[in-house]
Every structure is written in C-alpha cells, then in structure tokens.
C-alpha cells in the first residue's frame, strides 16, 4: 500500500539521527542570533540581515531574521543532504534492490522519496521559525508587530503570518528537492548527489545576483527565496507566492520527469 | 490450470535466450533456463560467471539486452508487480539500513510489498526472525550484526510472506559450518512445503547436498543443466586396478576398449570407460573386466569402479579457476 510505504519512509527519515542533527543545527541558528543580540547590549545599528535590528524591540522577529540568515546556505545545504540521499543512499546501502524486489515499484518509490524530501523542507522551515519564535519570546519583549506597510498586527495574527512564511520558504525549496532527487538517481554515491545539489543552489544564487543575467532571473529556482517578506505586508501580497509556486512546480515537473526517465529504466547494479 | 503460454505453467523460472551486455562485455550470453516448480535448483558457477546478473534480470532489477524471462508463468518485467510479491529473494548478499534494528529493517521491506497486510506485519516479522534464530537480536541495530547474522536476516526477509518461489543468491556466504547446516535444513523444509527454491552458489558442496536440479554457468553461458543424477551420469566412469603386473593389465584393458589414464601410484592402473560401468545396464560389467584380467594372468590385488564425481564434472565444464570448496 502506498500509505504504508510513505509512513515507513517518513518515520525512518525523521527518526534517523542525521535528520535530527540537521534540524538541531537549523534550530541553533535563531538561538545563536538571539543570544548574540542579547549579549551585545547596544541597540541595533540598522546593518546586518533584514529584520535583525527589530529583534530587541520584538522577540517575534528572531524567527524571520534566522530565515534570512539560513536561506542562502544552511537551508539548501540540509535540503541537498536529504534530497541527494533519497535514491543514492538506498543504493549505497544495497537496500534499493530489496525495496524494488519487495516490490516497492520504481515510480511509487520515487514519489515516496520525493514526498519525504518535501516533508523535510517543511520541517526545516518550521524548525527555524518555531525555534526562533520560542527563543525570541524567552529573551526579548513580545508585542504587536509593525509590518512592512507600517500598520500593526496583534501577536496571534503575527504568529499565523510566521507560519505562512515557513510555508512560503518550504515551497521555495521544493524545486531544489526535485533537482536533488534527479541527481540521486544518477549515482550510487550519496555524497556526490548531495554536493551536486548544493552546488546547483549556489550557482543559481550567483546567477540571480549578476545583473548581466537579468533575463534569466525569473527562471532561477532561488529567485523568490527572499520574497517571503511579502507575507508581512498589510494586506498580505500573495503575488510573489503564486509566481514562486508556479516556478517551483515547473522545476518539479522538469526534474521529476528527468528522475522518472532515469530511474524507471535504470539497471540496478548496486 | 492452464496458464497463457501452455507448458510454462509447470516452470517456476523460464528464460529464453537471456542476454545482458554491458558495453562491449557480455555478462550473460543467451541462457535458456527451465526451473521446474517444486524443485531445488542449484545455480552453480565461478564468481563472475554471470549468475548474479542473471538473477537480477529475473527479478526485474536489470533489463535484458535481449531474450525473455517468465517467472511463475508470468512475463517479466511486465508483470513484475503481480509476480514479485509471490517471490522471496536474497540478491548478492544481504543489505540493510545499518542505523535501523533488524526488525525495523524487515518492517520497512514488508511495507514496500503492496500485498503484505499491515495489520499482521509485527507478527510476521517476529515469526520470520524466530525462524532464522534471530529473535534475540530483533531490536539490535544492524550495524552491530555479524555477517552471519545479516545473512540470516536476509533469509528472514524472504520469509515474511508465504512464497511460491525463493531466489537465494549465495545464501550461506559468511555463515559458519553450523549456520550453513541450518540454512540447508531451512531450504529443505521450505522445499518440502512445496516452495520452489532457486539457489546460486560457487561452492559445489553446498549445492550437491540439497539440490534436485542443477545449472552450471561458465563465462556467461549455461554450459550444463539437468537433474543432479543426469549430470552425474554424463562423463566416464574410472576403473582403478591395483596389481604388480601393470604392463599386462594395461594390454587387457586396452583390448577391452578402455582408455588408459595416468596413475598416481606405481602399482596402480587407471582407465576410463566411455560406456557406463556399473552393476547393471548394458555397459561393460566390472566382473567381466576382472574375469578378463584374471584370465590373462594379471594378479588383481584391488579393483574399484568410480563414478565421476560432480566436482570433476564441474571442473571439466567450467575450466580452470573454479572456486571449488577444498
């Protein structure tokens, strides 16, 4: 049964020590930020990552600040590890052949593996936001949030917005997960697939920063990675979310198709 | 019941001209296997002779360059999802997630089988572990298992559901003599309950004791196949004579149509008989040879007829480098 295999995959993914370590490392980012700001008594100077100077006034901003810090490297790194491991990790343990003769079904296994990676994206974004909100509330005053449009929303509303931001960031990472899944079908060495996936995320961000490749920017999967601030407007601007979701869906379609094309016909020799 | 394909229904595995090429190298060169249902089929050959690649093609892990496979009467890999739940397999050694316990690994593989009922999973895993004597290590992580324990766990994995066919690639690899005996007993008990067992090995001694049928691979080709008795009968029996009158004895034996072989000891004469020599049949009878020798004045101090051993047969079939158990 599909649900049986998916549940088993999720249970194993999230009980695995490596996954837990990745999530702990992500949770450490807001904690480090909050503690560093708390220890430095001087108020924010306005420099540093977005939202950072607002932390001392309102602890709720720790989560978003941590996301800004984590998005360029830490988040893609953890997603690269999990997505790159999907198929190649099974191949390297030799368990791929036993899953396939069980028979898991190649298409079914690929879908389950992708859903596992997607679940990790959600867990990763939530971990940063939740850990940030908790440590922020513990170390700093908490109150109504002044959003980017200048209006103020109450704490409950703000928490909902932060959850929405976590969702936005998780969706942003789905394209990268599909790329990782495809790389993972190409090799029996998980580290190779992980490194290739992470390199792709770095390359995409570099291209996105070069004015010479401006024509390419809207097609880069990292293009909307920092646009989640739109959620903090009043009213919420969903336009970039829609564009981003469409872009990620395109990456899922292309790299998903490549992964299927490769995996469904591949000789399993590992 | 007559299945589509007629006579195929009484074969558990049937391959036709099965071939696999990797680039310029041919790993499996057009093999025609016929494994009868209910048999214990020994798939024998040196390392690198194409056994594992053949098994991978049978199970749909590797697609053939040409040729076809039918498993339990169904075409592979087209009917893979219907056939494989009825097949238990150990392919090229056991493999598990090292960070999970033995029982968790089995539960995982079982949840990948779409026909395995989740409600009985726990009980079936427990029963399979008990059957291979791993009940005590069920909750231990696999990375702490010895090779022998992993091999047993691999066997337990094939027993999670009732199977019509078991494909076991080198099932006693890494087991101590006691474990090897247990695996043999397990295979026998499975065969007695009607399961067809297809077992590959590069160790002749293992195959010989449990198999009803044998196929021999050499350099990617199936060089011999048949029942164990059929394979034994092919090849010449040898006459070994102990006598001080070696020269006279040789003349008599040659006169009877035997071919002389090199003797290892000075007062021995060894010759081979093309026709079967035994107590029965139309061939040359042992007593007739002895009578002829005595008549010629040869002092017969010892006389024996040896059927060719399977080992001789396999060395002859597979050539040098065959990894026979010492």
UniProtKB/TrEMBL annotation, chain B:
Coiled-coil residue windows: none
Pfam family name, one: ABC_tran
InterPro entries, per database record: AAA+_ATPase, ABC_transporter-like_ATP-bd, ABC_transporter-like_CS, P-loop_NTPase
Domain of life: Bacteria
Occurrences of domain ABC transporter (ranges): 13-244
GO-annotated molecular function: ATP binding; ATP hydrolysis activity
Keywords, sorted A to Z: ATP-binding, Nucleotide-binding, Transport
PROSITE patterns reported for this sequence: ABC_TRANSPORTER_1 (PS00211), ABC_TRANSPORTER_2 (PS50893)
Homology family: Belongs to the ABC transporter superfamily.
Protein's name according to its UniProt entry: ABC transporter ATP-binding protein
Organism: Orlajensenia leifsoniae
Lineage: Bacteria, Bacillati, Actinomycetota, Actinomycetes, Micrococcales
């Amino acid at each position: 049964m599909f649900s049986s295999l998916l549940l088993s995959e999720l249970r194993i993914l999230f009980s695995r020590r490596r996954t837990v370590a990745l999530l702990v490392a992500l949770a450490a980012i807001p904690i480090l930020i909050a503690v560093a700001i708390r220890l430095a008594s001087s108020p924010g100077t306005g420099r540093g990552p977005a939202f950072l100077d607002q932390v001392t006034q309102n602890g709720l901003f720790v989560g978003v600040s941590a996301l800004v810090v984590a998005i360029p490297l830490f988040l893609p790194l953890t997603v690269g590890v999990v997505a790159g491991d999907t198929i190649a990790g099974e191949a390297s343990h030799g368990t791929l052949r036993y899953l396939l003769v069980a028979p898991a079904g190649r298409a079914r296994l690929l879908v389950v593996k992708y859903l596992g990676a997607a679940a990790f994206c959600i867990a990763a974004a939530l971990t940063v936001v939740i850990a940030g909100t908790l440590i922020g509330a513990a170390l700093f005053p908490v109150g109504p949030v002044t959003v980017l449009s200048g209006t103020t929303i109450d704490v409950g509303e703000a928490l909902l917005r932060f959850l929405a931001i976590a969702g936005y960031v998780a969706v942003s990472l789905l394209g990268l997960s599909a790329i990782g899944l495809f790389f993972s079908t190409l090799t029996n060495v998980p580290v190779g697939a992980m490194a290739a996936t992470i390199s792709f995320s770095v390359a995409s961000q570099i291209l996105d920063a070069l004015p010479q490749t401006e024509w390419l920017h809207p097609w880069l999967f990292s293009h909307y990675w920092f646009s989640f601030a739109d959620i903090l407007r009043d009213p919420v601007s969903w336009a970039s979310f829609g564009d981003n979701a469409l872009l990620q869906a395109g990456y899922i379609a292309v790299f998903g198709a490549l992964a299927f094309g490769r995996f469904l016909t591949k000789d399993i020799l590992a | 019941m007559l299945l589509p394909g007629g006579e195929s229904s009484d074969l558990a595995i049937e391959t036709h001209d099965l071939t696999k090429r990797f680039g310029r190298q041919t790993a499996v060169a057009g093999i025609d296997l016929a494994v009868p249902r209910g048999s214990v089929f020994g798939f024998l050959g040196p390392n690198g002779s194409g056994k594992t690649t053949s098994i991978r093609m049978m199970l749909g892990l590797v697609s053939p360059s040409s040729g076809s496979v039918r498993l339990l009467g169904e075409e592979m890999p087209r009917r893979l999802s219907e056939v494989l739940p009825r097949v238990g397999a150990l392919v090229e050694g056991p493999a598990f997630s090292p960070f999970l316990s033995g029982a968790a690994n089995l539960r995982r593989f079982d949840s990948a089988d779409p026909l395995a009922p989740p409600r009985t999973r726990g009980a079936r895993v427990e029963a399979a572990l008990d059957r291979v004597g791993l009940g005590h290590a069920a909750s231990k992580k696999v990375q702490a298992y010895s090779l022998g324990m992993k091999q047993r766990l691999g066997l337990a994995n094939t027993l999670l559901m009732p199977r019509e066919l078991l494909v076991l690639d080198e099932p006693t690899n890494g087991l101590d003599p006691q474990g090897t005996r247990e695996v043999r007993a397990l295979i026998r008990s499975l065969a007695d309950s009607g399961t067809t067992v297809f077992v590959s090995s590069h160790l002749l001694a293992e195959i010989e004791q449990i198999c009803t049928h044998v196929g021999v691979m050499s350099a990617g080709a199936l060089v011999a196949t048949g029942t164990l008795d059929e394979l034994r009968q092919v090849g010449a029996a040898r006459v070994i004579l102990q006598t001080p009158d070696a020269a006279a004895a040789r003349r008599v034996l040659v006169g009877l149509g035997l071919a002389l072989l090199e003797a290892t000891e000075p007062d021995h004469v060894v010759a081979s008989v093309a026709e079967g020599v035994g107590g029965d049949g139309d061939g040359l009878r042992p007593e007739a040879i002895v009578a002829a020798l005595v008549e010629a004045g040869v002092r017969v101090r010892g006389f024996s007829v040896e059927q060719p051993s399977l080992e001789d047969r396999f060395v002859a079939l597979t050539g040098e480098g065959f990894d026979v158990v010492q």
